[in-house]
Amino acid sequence: MKRVRFSQQEIVFAVFTVLFLVFSIFLQGFLTADNMLTLLQNVAVLGILGLAMAIVVIGRGIDLSLIAALAVPGGLVLQMVQNGHSLPASVLAAFLLSIAIGVVNGWLIAYAEVPPLFATLATGLFVAGLGQAALFQLDVVQWSDGMAGFERLGQGSILGIPTSIVMFAIACIVVFVVLRRTRWGAYIYAVGDNPFAARVTGIPSRPIVVLQYVLAALIGCFAGLVMAASVNSMPTRIFNSTLIYDVILVVVLGGIGLSGGRGGVVNVIIGTLLIGTMLNGMTILDIPYAGQNLIKGVVLLIAVITDTFLNPRNEETAQQGDI
Amino acid sequence: MVCDHKFALGSIAALTLATAAVPAFAQQGLDEPFQKPFREALAGKTVAYVPVAMNFDLTEGWYAGLKKELEPYGVKFEIRDPNWNTNAGAQAVTSLISEKPAVMVIHNPDVQTYAKLLQRAENEGIYVIQINMGSAYRSSAFVGANWIEIGERQTEGVVKACQGKSNKIAIIQGALSAAASAYTLKGVENVLAKHPDIKVVSSQAADWDAAKAKAITQTVLKQNPDLCGIVGFWDGMDIGTAAAIKEAGLTGKVFLATSGGGERKGACELVKNGSFDLNMSYDVPTQAAQMAGTIKWLLSSGAKPGSVKGSEYTTLIPITKENADSQTACWNLSDLKK
Fold first, then answer.
1. Distance between CA atoms of B78 and B230, rounded to whole angstroms?
2. B83 to chain A: which residues are within 8 Å by CB?
3. Angle at CA A212, nearest 5°, toward A211 and A215?
4. Which option is the CATH number for B36-145+284-307: 3.40.50.2300, 3.30.460.80, 3.50.50.60, 3.90.105.10?
5. What DSSP designation does A138 have?
């Protein structure tokens, strides 16, 4: 008998389609062009972060420092401009800081062989602490006159499409090209699929791990700039929020297995769409906050359980310190 | 004069002595009998400050204001920063009780967590001043905003702006666990009970997060483009609410009322550029001065901690376009720190 098998990606896409149809039919004001754009706009930053996390997860890692990489370099730009530095110099400083975060993460994981969960947890705390103690005067870094024009990165629209959606699209294309059209991208898949085999075949697996985390930190910084531009300030305290779980939710829901080597940009888009639809629908329905968390938690649990059933671990794929 | 004095020792009458003696006293100066005990009561005393976190305008402002008022009198000012961690805060308060400072200035994260600890502290002889967020235990003094009043006055502003319009409003709450948010909501409800014609189309918590506030507001505005007002619970978060209104091209049409500590960049500047229509400010420097005044009074009174209990609710400053330009409506953190 032929067994019908669905990949996680297909299951999530089906869930998304059903949810979308139900909302469209029963929820007045859901299926309008305006609301669709709002839906996407609200999850654009989450989607960009999802891309960063996807690169790392495909390479069989995880990056818990991603929110710090969003908040601190982004906040640094606003703070430096507020202190009278020029905008290009501030952006350059932010990029350098992001690269440093990525290099430290990658070095700890690839060379010191610290499990990514612990390494990035520690660097995230360190970077957030550094920002609070040394870089920012206040947790919420306010917009200043020197930033004029920069808000276009996250506000307004290009050809009728809100800018943050355009930024998400650009990030999708860039990550797609890196993952699927470059040798580095192929190496990331190889290292994620089987790091030992990758090393034996001569792939520079350690530098590739460093590259993943540098890319993730840079995309995180980009997401931070889009977010800051979108709300005209940088709430650096976002590090203490549950945003990182939402990012993992997007990646896992989209069907990028945590055991590495699988998935791509399409999965992130599907995961982001599902979260966006859920959030938008729940906001229109005016569901209380606690109820929203409950629903999100249940959906994540279902996704993780499905992942375990469809992509079972075995001795070949499991490893010490794996998550 | 000198001659008079010499004669007085001999045979001059008492009246002459008296008239001569008064100018002599005036030249030597008059001792004010209470200032020395006051200075002694303050010198070398320790005041411990436990905010929910440093690094935001309110707690930084209180810190700077208290330091400025108390340090010149030789008061040692200590700070314990739990950085939004309620457990760390409870630990800080517990360890402070054994260290026995003269005064504890406590910013509660919620109503219950510190209540028992604060009672213990006063029993141990430490004055407890609770600021802006009270606990279930009433201590020597509470200095801070009346959240119910803030909710009421913000909602009154929104209701007034809605007259003759759609009567549809939205509420952007803070974090559900924060009592400040719950109290403000009660104030909102108080006013809405008097105006049954006002319809709340959305009442959601945005977790004090500007990005979440923006997302919620965008969705609500798409569903209700005729919305006439929004009650937001904190200006740091409502930057996001304002950004959503601006992007929808509804600035000036949707009345946004919010509240905060009145720091210039976070309050007046944003009222001036039209982001907020009303910002109820609890003027942090005044609050800090009241806290310092209370500390001075308590230390010099010699009253037993917990034997007197009182409240000083902050007189709110409504910041609107009319006063946003004035020098006194807002304050600068950088100036306060000087």
1. 40
2. 132
3. 85
4. 3.40.50.2300
5. S
The minimum CA-CA distance between B211 and chain A, rounded to whole Å, is: 6
The CA distances from residue A321 to A54, A300, B14, B39, in Å, are: 19, 22, 99, 61
Residue A288 in contact with partner chain B when CB distance is under 8 A:
yes
Please report where in the chains the tokens 């060379």 appear, as a residue: A111
φ, ψ for residue B274, nearest 5 deg: 90, 0
Give the number of other Cβ atoms within 10 Å of residue B199's Cβ: 13
Nearest by CB: B55 against A38, A139, A288: A139
Q: Residue A302, Cβ neighbours under 10 Å: how many?
A: 14
Helix (H) or strand (E) holding A211: helix A205-231
For residue A304, give the H/E element and its range: helix A289-310
Residues 169-198 of A with CB under 8 A from B: none
8 A C-beta contact, residue B106 and residue B93:
yes
* A234 residue type, one letter: M
Of B203, B219, B243, the CB nearest to A155: B243
Q: Residues spanned by CATH 3.40.50.2300 within chain B?
A: 36-145+284-307, 147-281
The complex scores an ipTM of 0.76
Q: How many residues does chain A have?
A: 323
Q: Tell me the CB-side half-sphere exposure of residue B23, using CA atoms within 13 A.
A: 8
Q: Using alpha carbons, select from B254, B243, B227 the residue that is nearest to residue A42.
A: B243
Burial (CB count <10 Å: 0-12, 13-18, 19+), residue B128 = buried
Q: For residues A78 and B1, give the distance between their C-alpha atoms in angstroms, rounded to a whole number.
A: 73
CA A130 – CA A134 distance, rounded (Å): 6
Q: How far apart are CA B23 and CA B194, in angstroms?
A: 68
Is B240 in CB contact (< 8 Å) with chain A? Answer: yes
Per-residue confidence in pLDDT tens, chain A, 323 aa: 445 566 667 777 877 888 889 889 988 888 888 888 889 988 999 999 999 999 999 999 999 999 999 999 999 999 999 899 999 999 999 999 999 999 999 999 999 999 999 999 999 999 998 998 888 888 888 888 888 888 888 888 888 888 999 999 999 999 999 999 999 999 999 999 888 899 899 999 999 999 999 999 999 999 999 999 988 888 888 887 788 988 988 888 888 877 888 889 999 999 999 888 888 888 888 888 778 888 878 877 876 677 677 766 665 555 544 54
Radius of gyration for chain A, computed over Cα atoms and rounded to the nearest angstrom: 20
- Indicate the residue of A132, A231, A290 with minimum beta-carbon distance to B240: A231
Residue A295: count of CB within 10 angstroms of its CB: 15
Task: Tell me the torsion sign for CA atoms A228, A230, A233, A236.
Answer: negative
The domain made up of B147-281 has a fold known as Rossmann fold (3.40.50)
Percent of chain A with pLDDT over 90: 47
Amino acid at B262: G
The domains found in chain A, sorted by start residue, are: 8-20+32-310 (1.10.3470)
CA distances, A85 to each of A81, A98, A224, B272 (Å): 5, 19, 19, 25
CA-based torsion, A128, A132, A138, A143: positive or negative? negative
Residue B151 C-beta-side C-alpha neighbours within 13 Å: 22
